[in-house]
Predict the structure.
Amino acid sequence: MNLEYLKLFDLNTAQIESMPLTERRLSQLSGCFADARAYQAALEQSDPVIYSVSSYEPAHSDGDLHIGLGRIMPGKVGDEFYLTRGHLHTWREAAEIYIGLSGQGQMLLEVEGGAVSSLSLSPQSIVYVPGHTAHRTVNTGFSPLLYLGIYPAKAGHDYASLTEHNFRQMVLDVQGSVQTILRSTWLESRGGSS
Ligand code: NI
């Protein structure tokens, strides 16, 4: 059995050596940001890369692990910080571990039909994402947010289940302070329209 599994990763390019890099642009995040008007206005200006993931998937069987190196750029749509689309795992039981590498961020965790929480993701922090829990990562700082995600090879990504309802929480810049609020609260403050 070949055991040559050492990989180097580059914090400047956010790439794991010789591994594929998937980029997500603003235009691919339709429906993720609460302020639809601000989203349209931003898109009319430009369509920047919001985040990327470089994936190392050496697995041969269900017991193996996959690793993703994520980078979210700094920025906002309206008052809402740049974010990942977020997902549940197709195999719902699959947990995941996030390890912050650089920058400042927040992870939104939402159990399907259950509790929600918002946890800091920064260097020297580890966030455990249990099974059955949707997870989205948000860059709340002024520099790129980099992190590793480690998950079972057979976890799979289910984006569709969240497309309709989006996350229940959102992370906002409120006059210079980072605040996580419920989307329903934000909608009410806007008179019920987005
Ligand atoms: Ni995941």
Observations:
- The first strand starts at residue 9 and ends at 10.
- The longest helix spans residues 36-45.
- The CA atoms of residues 55 and 68 lie 4 Å apart.
- The chain has three helices and 17 strands.
